[in-house]
Design goal:
Length: 360
């Protein structure tokens, strides 16, 4: 995407924010309670994408229970639950708005590095330092499948292809695909195109495009349907990847305390974001609901929000003082966020005025 196209995209984003704010203001005039949380809802009601005051900057609850650093935190696909995983070799299922622990899962021999949830909430996928990728039954807590093939620690895992496939990325420089419908434990495809550890993976393009970021400084995107791949060289180790809500952009975090917004179609850099610390440790990043802001954890305990188009810092939170904020995820439907850190906790964040309220 060239400069002209980026300018057009920026204009579209600003116009979208203005429309959202106008519609929200009109709705408030018609019904002052229209933006309040419906009874029984599991989070704050959606607000305009670029409205700074509606970003989740207020601490709601702390999810405490891990014995050691919490390496990753993920909302379920519908946003009703949060999953956390950590150095203590466990992963946990939470009600994030009540702050209550639902279930603890055990079975990995080493740290659990990532966790993903199927869209129907019935299955989970995990990976870890023990070279294992597991498929779990949520209700029973039992392993459905033990996938094999990685030769070293596995860093990231996602569901793909309408949850029929699990995709994993590993220290062995590979991304591997496993068929959830088959009884086979072996990968149906292994891609070894990187020259160093693949730290992160994301699924986009309707579930048929897979992008993997690596310590070798590249993002490689695999188009499963077309059987093609392309490489984007960012020059520094890539440690996080997330996709925009409109599926047009990828947000890549790197170990030079920088993030880049990439055009998902051709990999061109559209914007750069600086202001957080990510020099030696992997920290997660994301795009907010409506793609109005980019947000990232930081090695100094902060969470930083940037305006997407102008790339200026809007908000800084001292989320986990003095600790590395390694995990971060944004709610898929509402302005809510979860963070996790080396202090052994995860925290749920909501907009001011909503945090701390009883959702029942």
């Amino acid at each position: 995407m060239g400069q002209k196209s980026w300018n057009v995209y920026g204009q579209e984003q600003r116009a979208k924010v203005r429309r959202d704010e106008e519609e929200f203001a009109a709705r408030d005039e018609e019904d002052p309670d229209a933006g309040s949380l419906p009874k029984g809802a599991s989070g704050p009601a959606p607000r305009p994408a670029g409205h700074v005051g509606e970003l989740p900057t207020a601490h709601h609850v702390t999810l405490a229970g891990h014995e050691g650093p919490v390496l990753a935190c993920r909302f379920s696909r519908g946003g009703s639950y949060v999953l956390t995983c950590g150095k203590d070799r466990t992963f946990k299922l939470w009600n994030p708005f009540k702050g209550s622990l639902i279930k603890t899962y055990e079975g990995h021999a080493h740290e659990v590095r990532d966790v993903a949830c199927a869209i129907d909430n019935s299955r989970l996928a995990t990976c870890g330092g023990d070279k294992q990728v597991f498929l779990w039954d949520v209700s029973t807590g039992q392993k459905i499948r033990r996938f094999r093939g990685h030769e070293a620690a596995v860093n990231a895992v996602r569901f793909a292809a309408n949850d029929q496939c699990v995709v994993s990325a590993g220290y062995d420089r590979s991304v591997r695909f496993f068929d959830c419908r088959s009884n086979s434990a072996d990968p149906i495809q292994s891609v070894v195109e990187w020259s160093d550890s693949v730290t992160c993976v994301c699924v986009h393009g309707g579930g048929h495009r897979i992008s993997g970021g690596s310590v070798d400084g590249t993002v490689r995107t695999l188009d499963v349907r077309a059987g093609r791949s392309h490489r984007d060289d960012l020059g520094h180790p890539v440690t996080s990847l997330s996709v925009s809500g409109d599926d047009q952009c990828l947000l890549a975090g790197m170990l030079d305390s920088r993030m880049c917004l990439l055009d998902a179609s051709d990999g061109s850099v559209m914007a750069e974001y600086r202001g957080h610390v990510s020099d030696v440790t992997k920290v997660d990043s994301a795009l907010t609901l409506g793609d109005g802001h980019a947000v990232s954890g930081s090695e100094d305990g902060r969470v930083v929000f940037w305006e997407l188009v102008d790339a200026t810092v809007d908000i800084e939170l001292d989320a986990h003082p003095g600790k590395v904020v390694c995990g971060l995820d944004y709610h898929p439907k509402r302005h809510a966020m979860v963070t996790s850190a080396t202090d052994g906790t995860a925290k749920v964040w909501l907009p001011e005025g909503v945090a701390g309220t009883d959702f029942d």
